């Protein structure tokens, strides 16, 4: 579906820059001050969520006392990282996520009140996108198509392990109309039958668990070996890879899985919701 090259190169570049900075005893704030960035931008760079210009790279290398072959390597990584993957017309801040998703070996996804992009039908996606603040009307169809295309990886020869915990409102809430929801719920039931997919629903009776906050995704990547936490907002996204964040959200996800209905009971709830649609 996609060319993962730029994604892998961004991750490799980020890891290399972090090692380089730490070996030189340089703090992230020093890099931020050097480039007149917010410190969060340094974090995104080192987590593979953004690229960097050649001039900015030279300044970091100079500050960290790096030259020669190592400088050539990071420049080559940066050049390849700046290439654009074929992800359709998506927002810049979401582009990195789509790329990482395309190469992840495992995805752990929690959404409370809607279906995640990788599982959306075109009609469901279009209905949501038409209401989105950050999406231009002329881009709705193309972004919706890209979401449907992402789902194809689940039936590819080398699919990711996928574990999803959805809140019951994501199942019973009507997006668009009954026809849109019937198609969407049918897709969920089909995907749930795949051996590498675990789909559970957190019922309203355990709704307190959804006080954990916004939807989140944990992506486990194999090459380079790395785990990324993705938090999406209305107009931007955060990519976190710190041990404390990852531990907290992994614990949260495991608690959600325990509280959620079993796979078979979740499928029965989805079928019940289907039967009640007009």
UniProtKB/TrEMBL annotation:
<protein>
    <submittedName>
        <fullName>Transcriptional regulator with XRE-family HTH domain</fullName>
    </submittedName>
</protein>
<dbReference type="Pfam" id="PF19054">
    <property type="entry name" value="DUF5753"/>
</dbReference>
<dbReference type="Pfam" id="PF13560">
    <property type="entry name" value="HTH_31"/>
</dbReference>
<dbReference type="InterPro" id="IPR043917">
    <property type="entry name" value="DUF5753"/>
</dbReference>
<dbReference type="InterPro" id="IPR010982">
    <property type="entry name" value="Lambda_DNA-bd_dom_sf"/>
</dbReference>
<feature type="domain" description="HTH cro/C1-type">
    <location>
        <begin position="17"/>
        <end position="71"/>
    </location>
</feature>
<dbReference type="GO" id="GO:0003677">
    <property type="term" value="F:DNA binding"/>
</dbReference>
<dbReference type="InterPro" id="IPR001387">
    <property type="entry name" value="Cro/C1-type_HTH"/>
</dbReference>
């Amino acid at each position: 579906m996609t060319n993962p090259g730029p994604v892998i190169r961004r991750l490799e570049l980020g890891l290399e820059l972090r090692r380089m900075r730490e070996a030189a005893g340089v703090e992230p704030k020093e890099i931020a001050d050097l480039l007149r960035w917010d410190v969060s931008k340094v974090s995104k760079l080192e987590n593979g969520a953004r690229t960097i210009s050649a001039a900015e790279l030279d300044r970091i290398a100079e500050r960290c006392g790096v030259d020669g072959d190592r400088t050539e390597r990071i420049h080559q990584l940066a050049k390849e990282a700046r290439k654009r993957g074929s992800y359709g017309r998506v927002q810049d801040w979401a582009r990195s996520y789509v790329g990482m998703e395309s190469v992840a070996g495992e995805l752990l996804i929690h959404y409370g009140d809607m279906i995640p992009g990788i599982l959306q039908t075109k009609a469901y996606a279009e209905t949501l996108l038409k209401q989105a603040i950050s999406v231009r009307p002329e881009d709705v169809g193309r972004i919706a198509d890209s979401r449907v295309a992402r789902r194809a990886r689940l039936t590819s020869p080398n699919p990711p392990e996928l574990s999803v915990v959805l809140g019951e409102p994501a199942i019973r809430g009507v997006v668009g109309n009954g026809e849109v929801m019937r198609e969407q719920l049918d897709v969920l039931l089909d995907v749930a039958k795949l051996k590498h997919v675990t789909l559970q629903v957190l019922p309203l009776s355990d709704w307190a668990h959804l006080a954990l906050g916004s939807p989140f995704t944990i992506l486990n990547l194999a090459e380079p070996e790395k785990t990324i936490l993705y938090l999406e907002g209305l107009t931007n996204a955060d990519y976190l890879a710190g041990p404390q964040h990852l531990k907290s959200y992994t614990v949260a996800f495991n608690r959600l899985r325990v509280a959620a209905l079993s796979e078979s009971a979740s499928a029965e709830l989805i079928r019940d919701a289907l039967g009640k649609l007009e």
